[in-house]
Amino acid sequence: MATIEVSVNDEQLSFETTETLFSPRRADRGTLAMLSMVTFEGGQRVLDLGCGYGLVGILAAKKVGGENVVMLDVDSEAVRVAAANAAQNNVPDVQVVESDGFQSLDESAFDHILSNPPYHTDFSVARSFILKGFNRLKLGGRMWMVTKRSTWYRRKLQSVFGNAYQHKVDGYTVFEAVKKSDSYAQAGKRRKRR
């Protein structure tokens, strides 16, 4: 076990981590870049998709209230550590769920879905996150993703959301996609051509 101290968005947070989790010795720069772009407001509903040890979800809970935050991870160790970190950072009412993507989550109507997807592997995980995440956002909700490989993400987000705003932060690309319709952008284009 290691301890990470993080100061982000006017919050002082402390996290326990293990060597098996992503970025176990320091807060990931890409995650911090993404968090620097998001403004959380009280009462918003937030989903931390692929939560790891819980940095994103716990910061969000400090801003919107723990009862409004869900954190998902496929790794049981991440879920255990994230739940312990939520309690340690005084947001014990965050919901932490072991789930392969959205498989074990019934909730929807989120204001924000945030993810630092595994962009060094194939795109199947990110594709699923984008397609299924779209359906879990409320109208006007935002999907946030951080990556160093921007072309594929820009194209996929634009094809699903009809938009993909890019923010360059600290060598990373932070994508912000806004849900403006209940149907995928490409599906709407296909209907119009007929």
Can you walk me through this structure?
The chain has 194 residues and is of the alpha/beta class. The protein has one domain: 3-Layer(aba) Sandwich (Rossmann fold). Helices cover 34% and strands 29% of the residues. It contains six helices and nine strands; from the N terminus they run ββαβαβαββαβαββα. Strands 5-4-3-6-7-9-8 form a seven-stranded mixed β-sheet, with helices on both faces. A two-stranded antiparallel ribbon has the order 1-2. β1 and β2 form a beta hairpin. It is globular, with a radius of gyration of 16 Å. The relative contact order is 0.15.
The largest pleated sheet is described as: 7 strands, mixed
Give me the secondary-structure category: alpha/beta
**CATH superfamily, called what?**
Vaccinia Virus protein VP39
Question: What is the count of DSSP helices, taking H or I runs of 4+ residues?
Answer: 6
Describe the strand arrangement of the main beta sheet, using strand numbers. Answer: 5-4-3-6-7-9-8
By CATH, the topology is Rossmann fold
Strand elements, count: 9
- How much β-strand is present in the residues? 25-35%
